[in-house]
Structure formats: C-alpha cells, structure tokens
C-alpha cells in the first residue's frame, strides 16, 4: 500500500474505535487532545503519521478484529517506518504484557486509565511529524473529529462532518459490580465517579462546539454519585439540562439495580432527555441472573419497568440479552424467550455467550455451541418481530431526527437517528450540502416504510435547533415520480 505524498504538510492522526460508547468517548477525548497538540484528523489510515486503535474485549470477535487490524496497519508501517501505531482501550489493558510480543510492530500500548498520558505522548511526538507548517488554511483543526468505526458498525456510522453534533461525556470510569461474564471491572477497575462540576464543564464545551445532543456515558451510568456531595444521577441530569443551549440529553448504559424511584422521577422532569432507556436484562431466568451476579431478580427488573412505565410512559425500552451462558437450561432460555415475546423491548443487542479470559464464567462448563446457536436463532426471530412491530407504528408519522450523514451503503441516501435511537434513511434532498446540513441538522422525516433495522421516509423539513419549526425541504425528483 502506498502512502499519499500530499499528506506530508501536517501531522495527522487516524483513530479507529471498536466497542462501546465509553470507547467512543475516550476516542473523542484523544481526538480533542490531538487537535490541541496540532494534529489534523485523518479520514484514511494511509494519510496518517499516528495510527490509533481503540480496542474492545467484550467479546472474542472484538479481540480478533483488533489484532487483525493491527496486522493491516503493519503494511503501512513497512512502507513508512516513521508511522507510529498505538493501541489503547480494554484489549490494550488486558494484553499489555504480551501485545508487543504478539504484534511487535505496535509502538505503544496505553491502558484504560492512561488517556492523559497518551494525550501527552501525542503532544511530544507532534513536532517530529509537523515537517512543514500549513499557514494558509486557518486554524480549523479543532473542528475536525475522529472517524468512529463502532464494532459491528452499520451503514450509518457517524462521519466526520457531523460527528461534532453528538458529544460524549464520560461521567464515571470502571465498574464495581463484577458480573461473572464481564471483563470490564478487571480491565477498567472499580467505580471512579467524576465530580459534577467537571462533567457539566465538559457538557458546556460540547454545546459550544456545536453538539445538539450530549450523551452521558458510564458502564453503569445511573450508579453515578458526585464524590463530594453524594448527588445522584437524577440530580446530574437535571443540572445538565439547566445548562444554556443544551438541546438533547441522553445516557448509556444504566444498570436496572440503580434505577431508584427518585432517579426515575427526576428524569421525568427533564424535557431534553431522549425518550429511550437501555435496560440490560441479560436473562429472564432468576437462576441465570444469580449465576451472572446481576444483583436483581426477574421480579425486581419488572418493578423497574413498571416505574419507567409510570413516570416515563412514552419511552422506548431497549435491552441486552446473553444466550448460552454457562448452566443455561432449556427452561432458563424459555423464560428469557417468553419475556421477549411480550414485546416489551423496542430493540435488543443479543449475543451468544463467549468466554472472556479472567472472568469466573470462563471456568464453568459451557453450553454446547449448537445448543446456543439454536436458542439464539429463536430469540432473534422473536425480538425481530417485536422490533418490526415497534417500527411499523411509525409509518405515517413525521419524526424529528438528528442527521448522521450520507448512508455508507448508499450514498444517494441520508441517515439520521430518531430520538428513540431508531435509524431512519431518506433519499438525499436536492439542496444537500454538508456544511448546510451540519448547520441545520434536525430533519423531519415522514416515515413511509418500516424494517427490522429501522425506517425509511422522505425529508420534509430541516431545522437548526431542535425546538425550531424548520424550513421546508424540496423532495428529490425520484420521490416525485
Ligand atoms: S454492570 Fe456487569 S456487565 Fe455492566 S460493566 Fe459492570 S460488571 Fe460489566
């Protein structure tokens, strides 16, 4: 692979992110630190001086993909030995002692608690890359953002020109719950909650940089407490919503156990909150929940659902489910399947259990792969039917969505997300222009068809602010025929 000669004018960093929103938030932090240090953000790896992989280890597949990507990048390093390959994130934390033996071309490994050090290192390296300073193009470096490539990313991954519309703010690091399948407490450590003041300052900075939506991110985000005052997650959401200019607020991922009635009642007083809560069930069987160390029973989970329904009746509930966890019997699985069949969940991330080294469940007797696969197929069928029903209900309505950018699968279409996180795709409007649509990113889309993955429709209006009525958008010729 040949490197592009025209890229020698500035130091550039290419950031690729696997995994959860916590990693996306970390990548955004590093992108900002890199921009402050004088880097431009590269949209292609072959343009960059620094290649940064932010890794995930939640599933075996994520690990394999990260090591595969390191091998791809080896070719770039061979064609230009000055390129530096850096690995950060959960896999870096887990494999820090052996990563450079397995992949000797990796120049540096930064664990999950070394973001500040990584930012400092990038600043140290920068002068050696900035061989010719670009003086003509103004100081717009800070406006660019990291290219995000979420694990299992779809056609609708955020593109550069629109990524600043969504700000990620980490409210806590680590987790102290030690679910028996989860590697997070082992690689990210126990809860470390940030002070409210710091979090709010970061929200303000994102809003000032053009964010229309801010996502509060934590492994168990609703367990957050201010370390000094003890204020809880409800207090944090209310304080964030009171900041001037914040249009939309959302959060991921809460733990069912930490949804007290007080927190849920607080959320109901915050009109900027997106009407969707992700409530990870994991299993519908009490025996499995105990083995998973989830700290709630099925009945307690249902109590949380009832509270959400009482205070937040219009909110969509989405979930995570693991199939084939060690010890899962047919009856355990049927309990999960029955619950999914109630149609409670608007959507679900469903996984076949995969062994994570260093966790208790890795040492237990495993469910045969063919049994897990058969159960998984039945679960996916059931949830897909529920998801499709949820999406069907949008047909005929007009939903306000935040633009994501041109669809990766079909560049003649635009992708956007509704407030309940449903993907909506529409034909590219005739007046499409990236700068204009980044300035007026709220799209009213008349929904015409529904699918399991989301909906399609036509853009009828665009607006600068969420509360604006918006201006009409002409339909593309193809829609008029
Ligand atoms: S609550 Fe459980 S699954 Fe979630 S991060 Fe903590 S240990 Fe992992």
SSE layout:
Layout: E1 12-17, H1 21-36, E2 40-41, E3 50-55, H2 60-79, E4 84-89, H3 90-94, H4 99-102, E5 108-110, H5 115-129, E6 166-170, E7 172-173, H6 184-188, E8 192-193, H7 196-208, E9 213-217, H8 233-241, E10 248-252, H9 261-267, E11 276-278, H10 286-291, H11 298-311, E12 316-323, H12 330-341, E13 347-352, H13 369-392, E14 398-406, E15 413-418, E16 423-427, H14 434-439, E17 442-450, E18 454-463, E19 471-472, H15 477-480
Parallel strand pairs: 1-2, 1-3, 3-4, 4-5, 6-9, 9-10, 11-12, 12-13, 16-18
Antiparallel strand pairs: 7-8, 14-15, 14-17, 15-16, 17-18, 18-19
Helix pairs in contact: 1-5, 8-9, 9-11, 12-13
The chain binds iron/sulfur cluster.
The site of iron/sulfur cluster (SF4) has 10 residues, from helix 6.
Structure commentary:
There is one protein chain. The protein is of the alpha/beta class. The protein has three domains: 6-143, Methylthiotransferase, N-terminal domain (Rossmann fold, 3-Layer(aba) Sandwich); 160-392, Alpha-Beta Horseshoe (pyruvate-formate lyase- activating enzyme); 398-480, Beta Barrel (OB fold (Dihydrolipoamide Acetyltransferase, E2P)). It has 15 helices and 19 strands. It has helices at residues 21-36, 60-79, 90-94, 99-102, 115-129, 184-188, 196-208, 233-241, 261-267, 286-291, 298-311, 330-341, 369-392, 434-439, 477-480; strands spanning 12-17, 40-41, 50-55, 84-89, 108-110, 166-170, 172-173, 192-193, 213-217, 248-252, 276-278, 316-323, 347-352, 398-406, 413-418, 423-427, 442-450, 454-463, 471-472. The strands form five sheets. Strands 2-1-3-4-5 form a five-stranded parallel beta sheet, sandwiched between helices. Strands 14-15-16-18-17 form a five-stranded mixed beta barrel. Helix 1 packs parallel to helix 5 (115-129), helix 9 (261-267) packs parallel to helix 11 (298-311) and helix 12 (330-341) packs parallel to helix 13. The longest helix is centred in the C-terminal third of the chain and has 24 residues, at 369-392. It is globular and about 60 Å long.
């Amino acid at each position: 692979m040949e490197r592009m000669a025209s890229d020698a004018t500035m130091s550039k960093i290419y950031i690729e992110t696997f995994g959860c929103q916590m990693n996306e938030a970390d990548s955004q932090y590093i992108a900002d630190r890199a921009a402050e240090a004088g880097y431009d953000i590269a949209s292609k790896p072959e343009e960059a001086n620094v290649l940064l992989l932010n890794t995930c280890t939640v599933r075996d597949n994520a690990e394999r993909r990260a090591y595969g990507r390191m091998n791809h990048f080896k070719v770039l390093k061979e064609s230009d030995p000055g390129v530096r390959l850096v690995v950060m994130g959960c896999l870096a934390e887990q494999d820090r002692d052996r990563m450079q033996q397995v992949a000797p071309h990796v120049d540096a490994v930064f664990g999950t608690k070394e973001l500040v050090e990584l930012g400092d290192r990038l600043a140290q390296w920068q002068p050696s890359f900035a061989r010719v300073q670009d003086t003509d193009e103004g100081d717009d470096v800070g406006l660019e953002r990291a290219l995000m490539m979420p694990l299992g990313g779809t056609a609708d991954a955020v593109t550069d020109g629109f990524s600043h519309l969504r700000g990620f703010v980490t409210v806590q690091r680590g987790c102290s719950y030690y679910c028996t399948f989860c590697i997070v407490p082992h690689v990210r450590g126990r809860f470390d909650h940030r002070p409210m003041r710091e979090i709010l300052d970061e929200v303000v900075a994102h809003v000032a940089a053009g964010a229309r939506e801010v996502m509060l991110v934590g492994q168990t985000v609703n367990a957050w407490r201010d370390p000094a005052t003890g204020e809880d997650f409800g207090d944090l959401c209310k304080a964030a919503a009171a900041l001037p200019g914040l249009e939309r607020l959302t959060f991921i991922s809460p733990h069912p156990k930490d949804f007290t009635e007080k927190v849920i009642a607080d959320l109901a007083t915050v009109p900027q909150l997106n009407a969707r809560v992700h409530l990870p069930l994991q299993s519908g069987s009490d025996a499995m929940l105990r083995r998973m160390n989830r700290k709630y029973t099925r009945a307690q989970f249902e109590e949380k659902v009832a509270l959400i329904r009482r205070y937040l009746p219009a909110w969509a509930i989405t979930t995570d489910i693991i199939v084939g966890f060690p010890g899962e019997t047919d009856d355990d699985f049927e309990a999960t399947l029955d619950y999914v069949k109630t149609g409670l969940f608007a959507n679900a991330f469903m996984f076949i259990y995969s062994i994570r080294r260093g966790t208790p469940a890795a040492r237990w007797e495993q469910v045969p792969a063919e049994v897990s696969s058969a159960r998984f197929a039945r679960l996916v069928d059931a949830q897909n039917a529920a998801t499709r029903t949820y999406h069907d209900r949008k047909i005929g309505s007009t939903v306000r969505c935040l633009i994501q950018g041109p669809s990766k699968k079909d560049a003649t279409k635009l992708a956007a997300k509704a407030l309940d996180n449903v993907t909506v795709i529409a034909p590219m409007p005739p007046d499409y222009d990236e700068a204009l649509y980044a300035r007026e990113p709220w799209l009213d889309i008349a929904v015409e068809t529904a699918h399991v993955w989301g909906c399609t429709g036509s853009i009828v209006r665009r607006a600068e602010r969420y509360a604006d009525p918006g201006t009409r958008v002409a339909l593309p010729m193809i829609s008029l025929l």
